[in-house]
Write a structure and sequence with these properties.
InterPro entries: Ald_DH/histidinol_DH (IPR016161), Ald_DH_C (IPR016163), Ald_DH_CS_GLU (IPR029510), Ald_DH_N (IPR016162), Aldehyde_DH_dom (IPR015590). Belongs to the aldehyde dehydrogenase family. By secondary structure, the protein is of the alpha/beta class. 36% of the residues lie in helices and 21% in strands. The strands form five sheets. The protein has a seven-stranded mixed sheet with strand order 14-15-16-13-12-17-18, sandwiched between helices. Helix 1 (51-66) packs parallel to helix 8 (220-228) and helix 5 runs parallel beside helix 6. The longest helix is centred in the first third of the chain and has 17 residues, at 75-91. The termini are far apart.
C-alpha cells in the first residue's frame, strides 16, 4: 500500500507526541497504520504510545496543574485561550474535513458542514467564563457568619475519544475542561488520530501553556494505564458500553471521577397518525450519517402490528435507493464503514438476524459496483423480535430493525425494554401525544418526528448508555469539584 500525494494527511510530527508543550520522540519505534476505508490504502502512519509515553504525558499534565499558571488564571483569562482555539480550529476546517472521511468514511460534504459548528463549542464555553456561578454565596446553617459554594477544577483529565466523530467529541471534552482550569491528556483512537494531532497543532499555535493539553495515540491495553494512573483525577470517555464498564470498574477502585458516553440501541416509536412514507424517508436519511456508526442512531423501529408490513416496505423502498460510494463524490449519500473489522461485525449481525428468523427486506450484502473499500448495503429487517440479537445488541452500522407492537402502551414498553437509554424519537402529528410519550421513554434524549440530539443543550444516556452529560452548561459540571467555604466574618466585597 502506498500514500499518494493527494491523500497525505495535512499534519506534521506524526512520528512524535505532543507532551509538555513540545513534540517529543516516542519511547519506541512502534507505529500505527491508518487505513483509508474507501480504498483500503494506507493514509498515514503514526507513532504508537507505550507505557513510558503515557506516564510522561500524565506527568506533564500533573505538573501543569499542580505548579503551572493554568489553574491559577481567572476564567476570563482562560476564555481568551478558548476563543483563540476556536479561531484556530476554524482556520483548519478544510484540513479536518479532509482527514475525517479518510479515517472514518464520513461524507466529505458532511464533514465540511460539521466543522462549521466546532469553533462555536469553544466560543460557548468561553462565554460561560462571565456567566457561570463558579462562586456563590450560601447561608451557613451550622455556625459561621458567611458561606460560599466554590466550584474548582477537578484536576488532571484523561480524555479518551473514539474514531467516529473525533473533532466534535474532543471539543465537548476539552473545552469545558480547559475553562474549568483542568489540564488534559488527550488519548486518540488508533483508527482515527488525525483530529487529536490537529488539535495539538492548534494548541501549540495559540500558545497554550506547557502541559495543559497533551496528545498521544495508543491501543486499548496501553490506554488502560491512563485510566489506572493515580495522578489522573478524572476520565472522560466516549466509546462502547463494554469498554465503559471496564473503565468504571477501574475508576471505582481508586474513586476517580469519570463520565461515560456509551452505546445505544435507540428506538423510534411510530404512532398510528403519522404517514408511513414520511417516517421511512426520515429514518432512512438519518441512518446514512457516518454509515450508521453513531451511538444514538434510531435503529429499532417500533410500530403497531397492523402497520408493520407497510413500514417495512416503505423503509426497504427508501433505504435501498441510497447511493453508496466514494465519500468525496458529491452524489454519494453513504460512505464505507470505518474499518474491516467493523464491516465484519456488521455482516456478522446480518447473518445472525437471518438465522434467528428476522425477515431481510433489503440489503444484507456488499454493493456489487464497489470492488474495494469496507462498504455494506443499507439493510432493513422486518418481524424482528425485541429479544433477538439484532433487537438487543448495538450493531453500529446501517441496519434497521422493525419491531411490531400491539398498541401505544406496548410500543413504549418495547422501546424501554433494553439495557440502553441514549436516544429515542416519537413520530406523531399530535404534539401532546409526542410530549406524553417522550416523558415515558427512558432515554437521555427524545426527539419528535426526527433523529435529534443536541450537544448544545446536553447529551448523555440513561442506564448502560452512560453516566453524566456532555455539552451545554451541564457539560461543564463534570470538570468541577464543589467546595464549601465557611468564614467567621463577611468579606468586604460581600458587605452591602
Amino acid at each position: 500500500m502506498s500514500v499518494t500525494s493527494d491523500t497525505r494527511a495535512p499534519l506534521r510530527s506524526l512520528d512524535r507526541f505532543f507532551i509538555g508543550g513540545e513534540w517529543v520522540k516516542p519511547s519506541s519505534d512502534a507505529k500505527i497504520d491508518v487505513i483509508e476505508p474507501a480504498t483500503e490504502e494506507l493514509f498515514f502512519r503514526i507513532a504508537e504510545a507505550k507505557e513510558p509515553d503515557i506516564s510522561r504525558a500524565v506527568e506533564a499534565a500533573r505538573k501543569a496543574f499542580d505548579a503551572g499558571p493554568w489553574p491559577r488564571m481567572t476564567h476570563v483569562q482562560r476564555a481568551e485561550f478558548l476563543r483563540a482555539i476556536a479561531a484556530g480550529v476554524g482556520e483548519r476546517a478544510d484540513d479536518a474535513s479532509q482527514i475525517w472521511p479518510r479515517e472514518s468514511g464520513v461524507l466529505h460534504k458532511v464533514a465540511r458542514a460539521g466543522m462549521n459548528g466546532i469553533p462555536r463549542v469553544y466560543e460557548f464555553y468561553a462565554g460561560l467564563a462571565e456567566t457561570y456561578p463558579f462562586e456563590e454565596r450560601a447561608q451557613p446553617t451550622g455556625g459561621g457568619a458567611f458561606g460560599l459554594i466554590v466550584r474548582e477544577p477537578v484536576g488532571v483529565v484523561g480524555a479518551i475519544i473514539p474514531w467516529n466523530a473525533p473533532m466534535s467529541l474532543i471539543a465537548y471534552k476539552i473545552a469545558p475542561a480547559l475553562l474549568a482550569g483542568c489540564t488534559v491528556v488527550l488519548k486518540a483512537s488508533p483508527e482515527a488520530p488525525g483530529a487529536a494531532y490537529l488539535m495539538a497543532e492548534v494548541a501549540e499555535a495559540v500558545g497554550l501553556p506547557a502541559g495543559v493539553l497533551n496528545v498521544v495515540t495508543a491501543d486499548r491495553e496501553v490506554s488502560e494505564l491512563l485510566v489506572r494512573d493515580p495522578r489522573v483525577d478524572k476520565i472522560a470517555f466516549t466509546g462502547s458500553t463494554a469498554a465503559g464498564r471496564r473503565i468504571a470498574s477501574i475508576c471505582g477502585e481508586r474513586i476517580a471521577r469519570f463520565t461515560l458516553e456509551l452505546g445505544g440501541k435507540s428506538a423510534a416509536v411510530i404512532l398510528d397518525d403519522i404517514d408511513v412514507a414520511e417516517a421511512a424517508t426520515t429514518l432512512s436519511n438519518a441512518e446514512c450519517f457516518l454509515t450508521g456508526q453513531v451511538c444514538s442512531s434510531l435503529t429499532r423501529i417500533v410500530v403497531s402490528r397492523k402497520r408493520h408490513d407497510a413500514l417495512v416496505e416503505a423503509l426497504a423502498a427508501t433505504f435501498s435507493q441510497v447511493r453508496v460510494g466514494d465519500p468525496f463524490d458529491t452524489a454519494t449519500q453513504m460512505g464505507p464503514l470505518a474499518m474491516q473489522r467493523q464491516r465484519d461485525r456488521v455482516e456478522g449481525y446480518i447473518a445472525k438476524g437471518i438465522a434467528e428468523g428476522a425477515v431481510l427486506a433489503t440489503g444484507g450484502g456488499r454493493p456489487e459496483h464497489l470492488e474495494r473499500g469496507w462498504f455494506v448495503e443499507p439493510t432493513v429487517f422486518g418481524n424482528v423480535d425485541n429479544s433477538s440479537t439484532i433487537g438487543r445488541e448495538e450493531i453500529f452500522g446501517p441496519v434497521l430493525s422493525v419491531i411490531a407492537a400491539e398498541d401505544e402502551e406496548d410500543a413504549i414498553n418495547v422501546a424501554n425494554d433494553t439495557i440502553y437509554g441514549l436516544n429515542a424519537s416519537v413520530f406523531t402529528n399530535d404534539l401532546d401525544r409526542a410530549r406524553a410519550v417522550a416523558r415515558q421513554l427512558r432515554s437521555g434524549t427524545v426527539g419528535h418526528n426526527a433523529f435529534r440530539t443536541d450537544f448544545g443543550v446536553a447529551f448523555g444516556g440513561f442506564k448502560q448508555s452512560g453516566i453524566g452529560r456532555e455539552g451545554g452548561r451541564e457539560g461543564l459540571l463534570p470538570y468541577l469539584e464543589t467546595k464549601t467555604v465557611i468564614l467567621n466574618e463577611v468579606p468586604a466585597e460581600y458587605q452591602s
